[in-house]
Amino acid sequence: MSTMTFGRAINAGLRKAMEDDPKVVLMGEDIGKLGGVFRVTDGLQKDFGPHRVIDSPLAEAGIVGSAVGLAYRGYRPVVEIQFDGFIYPAFDQIVCQVAKLHYRTQGKVRMPITIRVPFGGGIGSPEHHSESPEAYFTHTSGLRVVSVSNPQDAYTMLRQAIASEDPVLYFEPKRRYHVKGEVEQNIDLGEAFPLGSASVRNAGSDVTLVTYGPLVKTAMDAALAAADDGISVEVIDLRSLAPIDFAHVEASVRKTGRLVITHEASRSGGLGAEIAATITERCFNHLESAPVRITGFDIPYPPSKLESHHLPDLDRILDGVDRALDRPNSLTGLGGRKR
After folding, report:
1. Per residue in 224-240, pLDDT tens?
2. Among 61, 146, 293, 321, which is 20 to 30 Å from 206 by CA?
3. What strands, in cross-sheet order, belong to the sheet with 240-242?
4. Are strands 259-266 and 292-296 parallel, antiparallel or unpaired?
5. Catalytic residue selected from 102, 128, 129, 310
6. In the 8-state DSSP scheme, what is residue 220?
7. Phi, psi of 7 (to 5 degrees)
8. What is the pLDDT of residues 246-257, one digit of tens each?
9. Active-site residue 248, yes or no?
10. Is the Cβ–Cβ distance between 183 and 128 less than 8 Å?
11. pTM score > 0.70 for this model?
């Protein structure tokens, strides 16, 4: 075990994958000499050379298109989209080529491409730098979509993504890059948890709170605060957004009878809607109340001075827990929780 930041854990995962397989190559804007805008790839070009850590032009469609060609030739490209809002020029390549080539060729062509996407808000960035575009890609058959929340998962799931024969969108919460945690690097991927599995971060019996990526820490803080009021909150970190590990969520809701879902992305058409609908279908007779969604608002991402009002925070999540429990809460004007 060693203690490292979230960003350093990703760096270590990339390094290990490149050491193990010479067919792993990295591409992205400023990832070489600079080490990326968040310094996640720092030192890799120096150690592996510019032919394996490639500074690309500022052209996301070209980056992903080149990755498709490399995958055709047997390589395992790992590409970085510098910021979440920059992924849209590559949208056509991802949903029309990367996601479909394996299916269209009846398995003759594989696309073992990993697309790293720093995503989410909370760092005071300008426009186009704080998006949450994950739902666009979870809607697309043929793509795996994951989102990591801590250094250990960041390391393990990145290695799993690179080793996967499926294309993987790997969403990294940029506001958590400096969070530290213990990381075990000497792991056997065959013995690790499956890439598509969720994790129970906090066991509870009254309410199931489902989230992923940047809001896992906030959800854990909410569970701790709720415990002061005698409320037991079970926190589930989805980790995999496509496919979703509904078995974990379903088992929890059958126990608690209540479901709260939170994510930074907008409410309409967000992942929370799919989770709420599926769990309602599967657990209707076990639910004591309707599922509650705590999300970003249905607006373009606001200026940085206003983002704290847009992002789900401790109070909004606790209000959601109160609503699921049919307790008075500040949103309905019936009095507020004492915190």
Report:
1. 999 999 999 999 999 99
2. 146
3. 53-55, 24-28, 76-80, 114-119, 168-173, 144-147, 240-242
4. parallel
5. 129
6. H
7. -65, -40
8. 999 999 999 999
9. no
10. no
11. yes
